[in-house]
Write a structure and sequence with these properties.
The protein is an alpha/beta fold. It has helices at residues 58-64, 72-77, 88-107, 123-135, 154-158, 167-170, 176-179, 199-204, 206-219, 258-268, and strands at 6-7, 13-14, 66-69, 111-115, 142-146, 181-183, 187-190, 223-227, 246-252, 274-280. It has a 10-stranded mixed beta sheet with strand order 1-2-3-6-7-5-8-4-9-10, sandwiched between helices. Helix 3 crosses helix 4 (123-135).
Length: 295
């Protein structure tokens, strides 16, 4: 597959994916009542059974994703750590990575929603840094997906100026490899370049359910991090019941109130497990530059 690169206006260099409309890696099916074909000379059946599903190779599918180069200066300016760093905030994300992986291995989970009680708590910042630190593991596969459809943030945080509309993938108009990008060898990015006004309705749609299932089937990631809207801002998080395994709640140490956390617990109770609570922007002075938190 040929590649061509162009510079984005925010320091990212990305390849514009080929728009095919039909995925090269669509999951195969076996026909329930296959058509029987007869050999004209012998009268014998040639194809009495449906063709089996094609075996999917996630490695080839990852290789089909267009590479995106992210500007280190842009990332560091947004408090993101694409490389190992001695910064206290980077060390905190590495610690969170280890605790997250331990919790997921115990439960057999891999699809984690990142949310917050209200807007402005830094959930997108936490989701992106967590994805970057997970992707630093050799031979791993991590997916970062922006499903805060009304207020998509991940493309801007990462410096991707030409992100396509994620809705085109969710509603089945474009295949996965035309929308998703790959950063390095281990991180797939499903970022969104266009807000969706009727976001909750799209998240409830059968097409979105199928599209999200295809992310797991085709890419076979170890961890899928999904940036969702705040729990108390609408029903978008509840629309993901059955599509995610648990919720990681990001709170703001300077403004989140205890009653807001309890309200989130009541909303999620009996519907989605609460994996943990991350405290962003805690009061430790040494980490104020990047916003330090602890669980």
């Amino acid at each position: 597959m040929g590649t061509s690169e162009k510079k984005s206006g925010q320091g990212a260099v990305g390849e514009t994916p080929r728009s095919t409309g039909v995925s090269l890696f669509r999951r195969g099916t076996v026909a329930a009542n296959p058509t029987v074909t007869y050999d004209l000379a012998t009268g014998r059946e040639i194809f009495a059974h449906g063709l089996p599903s094609l075996a999917l190779n996630p490695v080839k599918i990852w290789e089909s994703l267009a590479m995106v180069r992210l500007s280190p200066g842009h990332l560091l300016g947004n408090g993101l750590f694409p490389m190992t760093s001695d910064d206290p905030a980077a060390a905190a994300f590495d610690h969170l990575r280890s605790r997250l992986l331990h919790g997921l291995s115990q439960k057999g989970w891999r699809r984690i929603a990142i949310s917050s009680p209200t807007h402005g708590c830094g959930k997108s910042f936490v989701a992106t840094n967590l994805a970057l630190t997970l992707a630093r593991r050799p031979d791993s596969r991590t997916v970062l997906l922006d499903l805060d459809l009304r207020r998509p943030r991940l493309a801007g945080i990462l410096g991707i100026s030409d992100a396509p509309p994620l809705a085109d993938y969710l509603c089945g108009e474009q295949p996965l490899e035309a929308i998703f990008r790959r950063f390095g060898r281990t991180l797939a990015l499903g970022v969104n370049g266009a807000p969706v006004p009727m976001a909750a309705e799209m998240l409830h749609s059968p097409e979105t359910v199928e599209a999200l299932a295809a992310v797991s089937d085709l890419l076979d990631p170890e961890v899928v991090l999904i940036d969702l809207p705040p729990v108390l801002a609408g029903d978008d998080v509840l629309a993901m019941v059955g599509q995610v395994d648990a919720v990681l709640l990001v709170t703001d140490g300077t403004k989140t109130r205890p009653e807001e956390i309890r309200a989130c617990e009541r909303v999620l109770e009996g519907r989605l497990p609460l994996l943990g609570v991350v405290l962003n922007r805690a009061e430790e002075p040494a980490a104020q530059q990047y916003g330090y938190w602890r669980r």
